[in-house]
Design a protein that fits this description.
The chain is α+β, with helices and mostly antiparallel strands and 241 residues long. It has helices at 78-83, 144-162, 167-192, 195-203, 217-230, and strands at 5-7, 13-15, 21-43, 47-60, 63-76, 91-105, 108-124, 234-235, 238-239. The strands form three sheets. It has a five-stranded mixed barrel with strand order 3-4-5-7-6. A two-stranded antiparallel sheet has the order 1-2. A hairpin with a 2-residue loop joins strand 8 and strand 9 (238-239).
Length: 241
Amino acid sequence: MSACRCRGPAGRGIPLRPVERRESYVQNIAEFRLIGRVGRIDVREKVAHVDVASDYHRRSATGWLQDTHWNRVTLFGRLVRRAAQLIKGDIIHVTGRVRQNGYERDGGRIPSVELIAARFACLGRTAEAVPRPARSANDDEPCLAALSAALVGYGYLVDEFEHQRDPAALETHGRLIEKQAAAVRALLERTLASPALIAAFHTAGYTGDYLRGCPWSPELADAVYDVRHRRGEYHDGVAND
């Protein structure tokens, strides 16, 4: 007896085979937010995959325990170029959507989850990735990019701290905030040593227009104003330059 066959559109016989795998997509869509350290980075032409290690805290009979979970995040478009600049050990904040897929194999259903990034920011660089500041002839090049990135990272950490309810997580984020605040202060003091930056803020009227393209430019302008005010460079709100 010959194998059962059916007829296709062109009249050719099509053998009937058991379906080994059938995929179904977009069964459920949710959002995710991760803060963690970068692990393996796989950057290709149009897509990048980044492994992120995040710490979670849970209560046990002996107290609070810390678990580390690895999550693979998928990035597309302009985020691929930014992912190529990451280095293992960097701390990033990434948000996006969760796509829960699934496929059937050998009569059973196997779920799969894909984390697709919508945006991410680097909160801190690993020590090996921090470049030494470039020096010009007069050493007047301000570290605006580093300072702006540090302020953004500080803001993310503060926001994350306000949403924590876990005592152990609160303590961890508190230490991270203190460390990030110290980095901001150090960068600010070093940047204000640049006459070029001070002159730029003076030309812009200390409104932050000079930093319009940088993240958190109003906060950066306020920080500069505060430091210069404490240094006695203002009198009744007017610069003494």
